[in-house]
Amino acid sequence: MNRLIVILGPTASGKTRLAAQVAHRLGGEIISADSRQVYRDMDIGTGKDLAEYRIGDETIPYHLINVTDAGSDYNVYQYQQDFYQVLPQILDRGRVPILCGGTGLYIEAVLKGHQFTAIPIDPRFRAELDQKSDGELLQLFEQTASAYTTVADTSTRKRLIRAIEINRYLNENSLTEITPMPSHPNYTVFGIDLPVELRRQRITRRLHERLRHGMIEEVQRLLERGIPTEKLVFYGLEYKFITNYLEGHLDYDTMVKRLETAIHQFAKRQMTFFRKMERDGIPIHWLDGLAPAETLTEEILTTV
Hints:
Blueprint: E1 4-8, H1 15-26, E2 28-32, E3 39-40, E4 54-55, E5 58-59, E6 62-63, E7 68-69, H2 76-92, E8 96-101, H3 104-112, H4 123-129, H5 134-143, H6 157-172, E9 187-193, H7 196-212, H8 215-224, H9 229-235, H10 237-246, H11 252-279, E10 284-288, H12 293-303
Parallel strand pairs: 1-8, 1-9, 2-6, 2-8, 3-7, 9-10
Antiparallel strand pairs: 4-5
Helix pairs in contact: 1-12, 2-3, 5-6, 7-11, 8-10, 9-10, 10-11
């Protein structure tokens, strides 16, 4: 099978377990599409759940997890390059590639071969933009419209700043100067759809489980290794709020409450981006997240 199977969904939807089941049945290997699981030693906070890759006596091969050190920079362009090194290797082994994750920007970039990701970062320009309010940034984004505008993800302040940076570059340079990225047109995308209330329950339960099982200690170890607080805050969610707690900026109860709210908001943004992917021409076969993983596995197998 030369087809790429994609399994996406919001956080806590059971993507990894389902992907592992499908890989087990098809003789597949999983390529992670998670923008934070690429970092080593960021395990609990990113939800790597590596035990999910073990089914009976088999360990499902996985890729693009633990590929760079915590504290380093990694972006969607690097992800594209890494993805297109791994994919042909899996196919050459006669295995089935299964792309699994919740970072829609990464998934869309490799399916469509976006060239915009190669546009260089301008730290000085970013610093100038960071002084502006969200409203001012949105206005500037609209004023600097380019070929990128219609596909831009502006769901977070960080991505909005990047979108303005790309717009400016395209308005000042030719896109032909950028090396094109390959795309992979032969794919089938499956999405896990959960009722909002169940998704919220799972997020809350999982958050408290991770807090009990060492997530705060994980962030403490990263700080003790000398990783700057601003870098951990940049990684967002668990690393942002727990760092603020450990630095004394938040008490424990406030940290947990704000973190829980932020994860709920993040899951909502994930679903918004997936719906945008559909509008932009990537068909998604939505699966009933209430069904057992075994049932969903059979549905995927009969579709592909």
